[in-house]
């Protein structure tokens, strides 16, 4: 089935198409248009021309549009989830959970659209500030180029589209090549709202063509990107003076202290490590467990991991299915083999069966093994023994990444110490680093990127602060 991309409220064809394959069945599920550079430029021009029309909408009108999108997702919850499951092989129960989060994200965006405010500046606090009245206003920046990943093809799109609309900007969205159907379905829903045509545009195609055009265009004022550090660095180097929000890699770590309730902790760790086949930016990848509870934790963790239901993503009981591409599974397998060659032990998994990479637990993993020091983005987790909290903090900090980390402890001083010393954007006390709700600030340090997501925080990234000073003489 040939699909069309969406520009200026119209569905458009291109001269070239590529087959889109199901990651699970390997069957062709659609043919996706590959926009040319000229077609991308045309979409950017449309978004640029509609800036003033979008900026003229009141906060009330923008909020109503976002509320309508929210309602349309509620009405189309099952269909939206089935599209995710089809193109990304995400088990249907997790795809439904993603749509529930998407609904919340657009709802939060609608609410935040009404809260975009500046602040009063106490001008007379300065010696030369007498008789002056100052304040700031937040104004939309214009065209936003949104480049999104495959792993949450609705909710991570919503984290860019929702705040962009709330702030009064126009958008050109380039979805991941493996998950364009979700973005095109979003266009179908938005087409039913009062959002002016040309404000929201979806252009499918290669990152080299579509992404490069967005990054290099002088009419695009901001790039918001979620993806790999290598691509993020390339965007940074090519973007000039555009605003950037780059959500990049991670190898999230967790510390488990002694004297904690493992029965409560272990199920969270299994979910954090293996949900969506480990293809989550804040997936639990590195676990550091105190000596006193190490053996018991490993026993419970491996037992529960081995009970995960592996199967077709359409099956409501399935918890693990195929990764996004066979090449990614082979890469993950090679990383496991490297770790074993360097002295690691396989407790569970470590193989591909029936086209599915099995949930894998490794122990005694070197800090220099790829499964530890790079972003694995696969259902692989390491469990290493530590003899002190300081050792665990040092191990987590021994990383090029710093998105989120977690610690389970009953000691308040230990919790405070970890919260201050962990070099990450977010510390989860008594929770896994995979925890996220969509209104919280979300973004990392080091090679995990720059800028914050989370609706209020993303809106701030997507506006310009203008100072106004009145001289009352």
Description:
There is one protein chain. The chain is of the alpha/beta class. It has helices at 37-49, 51-55, 59-75, 77-88, 92-113, 155-167, 180-190, 207-216, 229-238, 262-274, 291-305, 326-341, 370-373, 389-397, 412-421, 455-461; strands spanning 5-7, 10-12, 17-21, 28-33, 120-121, 132-140, 143-147, 170-174, 200-202, 220-226, 243-247, 253-256, 286-290, 345-348, 352-353, 356-357, 360-363, 380-386, 401-402, 404-408, 426-429, 445-446, 449-450, 463-471. The protein has a 7-stranded mixed β-sheet, with helices on both faces. The chain has a 6-stranded mixed β-sheet with strand order 9-8-7-10-11-23, sandwiched between helices. The protein has a 3-stranded antiparallel β-sheet with strand order 5-6-24. Helix 7 (180-190) links the parallel strand 8 (170-174) and strand 9 (200-202). The chain is globular and about 70 Å long. The termini are far apart. The model has no long low-confidence stretch (mean pLDDT 97).
Provide keyphrases for this structure.
globular, 473 residues, seven-stranded mixed β-sheet, alpha/beta, six-stranded mixed β-sheet
Kindly, what is the distance between the CA atoms of the first and last residues, rounded to a whole number of angstroms? Answer: 69 Å
- Total helical elements: 16
Query: Compute the gyration radius: what is it?
Result: 23 Å
Strand content: 15-25%
Strand numbers in spatial order across the main sheet: 14-17-18-13-12-20-21
Low-confidence stretches: none
Structural class: alpha/beta
User: What is the number of beta strands?
Assistant: 24
Mean pLDDT: 97
Shape verdict: globular
């Amino acid at each position: 089935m040939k699909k069309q991309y969406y520009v200026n409220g119209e569905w458009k064809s291109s001269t070239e198409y590529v087959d889109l394959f199901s990651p699970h069945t390997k069957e062709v599920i659609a043919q996706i248009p590959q926009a040319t550079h000229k077609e991308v430029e045309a979409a950017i021009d449309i978004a640029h021309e509609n800036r003033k029309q979008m900026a003229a909408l009141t906060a009330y009108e923008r909020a109503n549009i976002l509320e309508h999108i929210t309602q349309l997702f509620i009405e189309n919850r099952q269909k939206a989830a089935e599209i995710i499951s089809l193109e990304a092989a995400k088990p249907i129960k997790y795809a439904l959970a993603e749509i529930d989060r998407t609904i919340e994200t657009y709802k939060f965006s609608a609410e935040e659209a009404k809260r975009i405010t500046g602040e009063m500046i106490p001008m007379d606090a300065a010696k030369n500030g007498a008789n002056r009245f100052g304040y700031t206003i937040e104004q939309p920046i214009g065209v936003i180029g949104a480049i999104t990943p495959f792993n949450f093809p609705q909710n991570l799109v919503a984290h860019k589209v929702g705040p962009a609309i709330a702030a009064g900007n126009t958008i050109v969205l380039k979805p991941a090549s493996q998950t364009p159907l979700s973005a095109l379905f979003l266009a179908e829903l938005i087409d039913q709202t009062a959002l002016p045509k040309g404000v929201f545009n979806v252009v499918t195609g290669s990152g080299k063509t579509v992404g490069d055009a967005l990054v290099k265009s002088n009419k695009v004022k901001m790039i918001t990107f979620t993806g790999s550090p290598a691509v993020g660095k390339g965007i940074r180097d090519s973007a000039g003076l555009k605003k950037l929000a780059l959500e990049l890699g991670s190898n999230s770590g967790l510390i488990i202290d002694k004297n904690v309730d493992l029965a409560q902790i272990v199920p969270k760790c299994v979910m954090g490590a293996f949900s969506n086949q480990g293809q989550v930016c804040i997936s639990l990848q590195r676990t550091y467990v105190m000596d006193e509870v190490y053996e018991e934790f490993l026993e419970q963790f491996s037992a529960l991991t081995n009970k995960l239901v592996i199967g077709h993503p359409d099956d409501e009981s399935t918890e693990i299915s195929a990764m996004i591409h066979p090449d990614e599974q082979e890469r993950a397998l090679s990383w496991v083999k490297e770790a074993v060659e360097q002295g690691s032990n396989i407790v569970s998994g470590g193989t591909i069966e029936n086209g599915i990479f099995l949930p894998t637990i490794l122990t005694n993993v070197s800090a220099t093994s790829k499964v530890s020091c790079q972003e694995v983005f696969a259902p692989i987790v390491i469990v290493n023994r530590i003899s002190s909290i300081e050792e665990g903090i040092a191990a987590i900090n021994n990383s090029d990444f710093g998105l989120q980390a977690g610690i389970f402890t009953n000691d308040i001083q230990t919790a405070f110490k970890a919260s201050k010393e962990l070099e990450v954007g977010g510390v989860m006390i008594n929770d896994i680093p995979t925890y996220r709700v969509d209104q919280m600030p979300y973004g990392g340090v080091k090679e995990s990127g720059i800028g914050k997501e989370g609706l209020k925080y993303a809106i701030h990234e997507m506006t310009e602060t203008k100072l106004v000073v009145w001289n009352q003489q």
